[in-house]
Design a protein that fits this description.
single chain; about 20% strand; two-stranded antiparallel sheet; alpha/beta; about 20% helix; 6 helices
C-alpha cells in the first residue's frame, strides 16, 4: 500500500479545495494501491511527520489569489523535512495550481518541482478554458497507451514555466498557447496583476505561439516529482486519460515504477461510476 499525505489548506479562491481534496483521495484509493490522509496545516511538520508516508500530494497554493506576489510557506524546518523526504527516495505530486510561485519562493522548492509558474516573471493564464492536451512523450510509463490528444473543458491553462537550472525534467503533456486566444475583449483582466505584456503587445509575450507544458516529471536526489497543472474541476478529473495519468504519476513518484493500466470500461464495467477503478 502506498501511503499518501495530502497537504492543503491555503488554496487560491478560484479553487474549491473542500470539494477537490476528497475527489483526489477517491481517485487514488479507487485503484486499491493508495491510502490517503489529509492535513490542512503543514507548519511545524518535521521528518517524523513524514516518516510513515511514501508520497506527498500537494494541493497548496500558498496564496489567496493567483496574482498575489507573496507565497506563504511553512518555515525552514518543515520545508527541509519535505526536501529530505523526497531526496531520500520518496515522491511528491504537485496538483494543478500548487506549482504557483511568487516572491519568497525558496530556490530549493523550485528545484523540487523542476519548474513553477509566476506572473511576475512571465507566467500568465490563457483565457481559454476548453482546450486540447497533446502528449509530448507517449512512451513514458505514466503516459504510455493514452490517447495522443484529448480535450478538457472548464480548466485553467497556465503557460510559461520558470525552470530551475538544475532541474531534471521530462515533459509529458502540453497545450498550444496561441496569440489568437488572447485577442478577446477584456484581456488582460484586472485581477491578473503583474502580467508581463511587453509594450502592451500580446504578440511579444514570452513563449507565445508555442506548446506549453502541463505535465512533467522531475528527479530530485533519489526521489521523484510529478507535476500536473490542469485539473481545475471535476470535468477534467472525469476524463479517463487525465485520471489514468494522475494515478500513474502518483505511483511513479512514490515507487519509480508504473503498474496501473487505464480503467477497464469493457462489458459490464461500463456501468461502473467514476472513478471507474473500483466501481464504488
Amino acid at each position: 500500500m502506498i501511503r499518501v499525505l495530502l497537504i492543503t489548506g491555503r488554496v487560491v479562491k478560484e479553487h474549491d479545495y473542500f470539494r477537490i481534496n476528497p475527489l483526489l483521495k477517491q481517485m487514488l484509493e479507487s485503484t486499491g494501491l493508495f491510502e490517503v490522509k489529509i492535513t490542512e496545516e503543514f507548519k511545524g511538520a518535521t521528518a517524523r511527520t513524514l516518516e510513515d508516508y511514501d508520497l506527498v500530494l500537494m494541493n497548496y497554493d500558498g496564496k489567496e489569489w493567483l496574482s498575489d506576489p507573496v507565497f506563504t510557506y511553512w518555515g525552514s524546518e518543515s520545508e527541509q523535512a519535505l526536501y529530505e523526504f523526497v531526496a531520500a527516495g520518496k515522491g511528491i505530486v504537485f496538483y494543478h495550481s500548487s506549482f504557483s510561485c511568487g516572491e519568497g519562493t525558496p530556490d530549493e522548492y523550485l528545484k523540487l518541482m523542476g519548474g513553477g509558474h509566476n506572473l511576475q516573471t512571465g507566467g500568465r493564464r490563457n483565457p481559454k478554458s476548453d482546450f486540447t492536451v497533446r502528449l509530448s512523450d507517449g512512451e513514458h510509463p505514466i503516459t504510455k497507451g493514452l490517447h495522443r490528444e484529448w480535450m478538457v473543458v472548464g480548466d485553467d491553462f497556465l503557460p510559461v514555466i520558470t525552470w530551475h537550472p538544475e532541474a531534471r525534467v521530462q515533459i509529458l503533456a502540453s497545450v498550444y498557447d496561441s496569440v489568437e486566444d488572447y485577442r478577446i475583449p477584456g484581456f488582460p483582466p484586472p485581477h491578473l496583476k503583474g502580467l508581463v505584456i511587453p509594450d502592451g503587445d500580446i504578440s511579444r509575450m514570452p513563449e507565445i505561439n508555442t506548446y506549453q507544458p502541463v505535465a512533467w516529471t522531475n528527479e530530485y536526489g533519489k526521489g521523484r516529482a510529478f507535476v500536473i497543472t490542469i485539473g481545475h474541476d471535476i470535468d477534467t478529473m472525469r476524463r479517463i486519460d487525465f485520471l489514468t495519468m494522475f494515478v500513474r504519476g502518483a505511483q511513479w513518484a512514490a515507487t519509480g515504477e508504473v503498474t496501473l493500466e487505464a480503467p477497464d470500461r469493457s462489458g459490464d464495467n461500463r456501468l461502473n461510476p467514476w472513478p471507474y477503478y473500483s466501481g464504488k
